[in-house]
Design goal:
The protein is mainly α. The protein is 76% helix and 3% strand.
Length: 469
């Protein structure tokens, strides 16, 4: 059973009947990739002792996943469009499974870093494939709701990582935080094989090899530079060179896609404010989320004295995302895309600002701040992702989905790097105060909210564009 694009409204009736079961399988896979983003953070002290890791290696245990996740997203999204989104979904799950087993068995820091990179690459194949499949499984009138659920599950996975990691660490060897992926991945693969149909582009055009290369190299240099910045210094020649090269290569990608006769993405999307504006929203929200969680988990353990599980349980406050995400698309229909989604960065800014101005927040104040962060994701991410998908041609769903995913990963990596590097660290290496980091994130989020409103005010929908326009 195959689905070719376009359109989803003509999908096989059997597909339509099982669409919510298919969404559940894809959300399970997305939940796994989200859990793996930060699940390792609570285990770092234990892993450090077992693998004799230094500070730089500990940072790369987290960063290798983000780098390998973000850099190839557009590349694998474009390949998935051509060769099959279901195929790449399954391949991604297999790669993630192999990486998880390798991480659990790691006996050195180098092996752990390599295993985390393999896991990240698997995630890069899964995330855009799930979002592209949703577009082709769900009819237009249900797509916003499905994407809202998809965003909620992906967002919940990030804070749930430390919770699950904390529980496993208190009861098992640290390798359990990776072994837990095995049954989850197996269930997702079996479910996908059983009921999810293949979906691919009907276009017979050749691969845009130059675009594919630029789409990998640009994010690779940019994310690598961002990750290295706190260790090398933001003004070091290496940092400036890496980030500058990444920006230049991404700009070259945009120029190439607008001039080549066989683009990965339709030329029309680069001139569409409902494509570019939501990217600012997504990047700014996840900048605050990842950066905020990074400093809060340290504050809870180092300043307030919580153990891994106790610190992780505070992240449940971010489940507030599920209260807002389902209604966000309806609010956009009534009030407009910019008018609604600008509240995402503003709520994130409010959460970070609350942390900053309380000085050394108590656990209750941390819970309030995290709830605000969850509301920020819920109000901004679902309609923003839906707008990006609607602005992308049907047969380029994988590439369009990957752009949204890149915005999430780049924003998150930048948030950890910027807010982590601006944190005030005491002489013993522990977080002394989070005020400076939090206020930095809050200010940037407010600036992004203003940019979102300016770019999207008055917009309520995006006409679909055809490939090649």
């Amino acid at each position: 059973m195959n689905i070719t694009s376009p359109p989803p409204t003509q999908a096989d009736p059997t597909v339509y009947v099982h669409r919510w079961k298919m969404l559940a399988i894809m959300c399970l896979a997305l939940l796994i990739t989200s859990l793996d983003t930060l699940i390792v953070t609570v285990a770092l002290p234990t892993i450090e002792a077992d693998l004799d890791a230094n500070i730089s290696q500990l940072q790369w245990f987290v960063a290798a996943y983000s780098l390998a996740f973000a850099a190839p997203l557009l590349f694998v999204g474009g390949l998935a469009d051509k060769y099959g989104r279901r195929l790449f979904f399954i391949l991604g799950m297999v790669v993630l499974l192999l990486g998880s087993i390798a991480a659990a068995l790691a006996e050195s820091s180098a092996m752990m870093i390599a295993a985390r990179a393999v896991m990240g690459f698997g995630g890069s194949m899964i995330m855009p494939s799930t979002l592209a499949l949703i577009r082709h499984i769900f009819p237009a009138q249900e797509r916003a709701k499905a994407i809202g659920i998809w965003v909620s599950m992906g967002s919940i996975g990030v804070p749930f990582g430390p919770i699950i990691g904390g529980f496993l660490l208190e009861n098992f060897h640290w390798g359990a935080i990776f072994v837990i992926n095995v049954p989850l991945v197996a269930a997702a693969i079996l479910g996908c094989v059983a009921i999810i149909p293949e979906s691919k582009s009907t276009s017979q055009s050749k691969l845009d090899l130059v675009g594919l290369a630029l789409s990998v190299m640009g994010p690779l240099f940019l994310v690598y530079g961002i990750i290295e910045a706190p260790m090398r210094g933001w003004y070091s020649p290496v940092t400036i060179g890496l980030i500058g090269a990444g920006i230049a290569l991404i700009a070259a990608f945009v120029v190439w896609e607008r001039t080549t006769s066989n683009p990965m993405l339709s030329r029309a999307v680069f001139a569409n404010r409902n494509f570019g504006g939501p990217l600012i929203t997504i990047a700014s929200v996840f900048f605050g989320i990842f950066g905020g969680l990074f400093i809060v988990t340290q504050h809870l353990q180092f300043t307030l004295g919580y153990g891994p599980l106790g610190a992780g349980l505070h992240m449940l406050a971010m489940c507030s995302v599920v209260l807002v995400a389902p209604i966000a698309p309806k609010l956009v229909e009534r009030f407009g895309l910019g008018e609604v989604t600008m509240f995402g960065p503003l709520l994130v800014a409010a959460g970070l600002g609350f942390l900053a101005f309380t000085g050394s927040p108590t656990n209750v104040e941390v819970l309030i701040a995290l709830a605000l962060l969850g509301f920020g994701i819920g109000i901004a991410a679902p309609p923003s992702v839906d707008s990006i998908i609607d602005a992308t041609p049907e047969d380029q769903s994988g590439a369009g989905s990957a752009v949204a995913d890149v915005a999430m990963q780049l924003g998150g990596a930048l948030g950890i790097a910027v807010m982590g590097s601006t944190a005030v660290i005491s002489a013993n290496g522990k977080l002394a105060t989070l005020s400076q980091s939090a206020i930095t994130g809050a200010v940037l989020a407010v600036i992004c909210a203003a940019a979102v409103f300016t770019a999207l005010a008055g917009s309520r929908g995006t006409p679909k564009v055809a490939a090649g326009e």
